[in-house]
Specification:
The protein is about 75% helix and about 0% strand. By secondary structure, it is mainly α. Helix 1 packs antiparallel against helix 6.
């Protein structure tokens, strides 16, 4: 008949083996879930963190590209001195002012669509095409201004599309479900130590809450304290002469 000491040692060994198994399974699960959260956006574009970071960065790049195109058009307009240049500058100013005053508040509320083309930018494009260039220099300038205005319109189109993006409810649900499963695994691993279990779950829950806060702050690129502003457009706004 085995002694109580041997039975106790066997029970403790089995308990340690069980805990080790749960721990190994938890680590394996973490390694399976972690790539979904840290994989670059091109490899896992549908994960909420990657989707949010990608949309925010792409929206900022679209505004920068739009501002750069408008700046190029304004500089090239100097090839048509006098009334043509003043007209193009006025149209670009009008477009930027309209974007800041009307489009940005609508984008913040996801209430803007592509159905209406920007009148000032469309007029600037039509006016550029109607110019009668004299010499090769003005011909090149006319072609480059047209290309810059078309580039600005394309960047605006991308900006408006990105203003409609957000993390869907099903993605939030899956994210929180993963967190709950991880909390349950932590509780099982530390089931014999209540203090360690509480501290571990508290630390993990704090990390999840921080991640959720960051995702929510960047969820919609054009709203909130951390949002894409029209400052790049305002910085390239042509100033009236005189």
């Amino acid at each position: 008949m085995p002694s109580p000491f041997i039975i106790t040692r066997i029970c403790k060994a089995a308990q340690r083996k069980s805990k080790a198994s749960v721990l190994v399974l938890s680590v394996l699960a973490a390694f399976l879930v972690a790539p979904l959260l840290v994989t670059p956006a091109k490899a896992a574009p549908q994960c909420p963190p990657n989707e949010v970071w990608s949309d925010s960065a792409t929206a900022s790049a679209a505004v920068d590209r739009e501002a750069s195109a408008l700046r190029s058009a304004a500089l090239l307009a100097a090839a048509f001195p006098g009334e043509p240049k003043n007209r193009l500058d006025a149209l670009i100013r009008s477009y930027i002012a309209e974007a800041k005053a009307q489009e940005w508040p609508l984008m913040a509320h996801r209430a803007i669509t592509l159905t209406k083309a920007p009148s000032a930018l469309s007029e600037a494009l039509q006016f550029t095409l109607s110019l009668q260039p004299f010499g090769a220099g003005q011909q090149i300038a006319q072609r480059e201004i047209t290309s810059a205005l078309q580039n600005a319109m394309d960047a605006r189109r991308q900006r408006l599309l990105l203003s409609q993006s957000q993390v869907t409810g099903i993605k939030w649900f899956c994210l929180y479900l993963q967190a709950v499963c991880a909390l349950i695994a932590i509780a099982l691993v530390h089931s014999d130590n209540r203090l360690a279990s509480i501290l571990s779950m508290l630390l993990f829950a704090t990390g999840v809450a921080t991640a959720a806060l960051l995702i929510a702050a960047h969820d919609r690129p054009f709203i909130g304290e951390i949002s894409v502003s029209p400052d790049p457009l305002l910085q390239v706004m042509p100033q009236p002469e005189g």
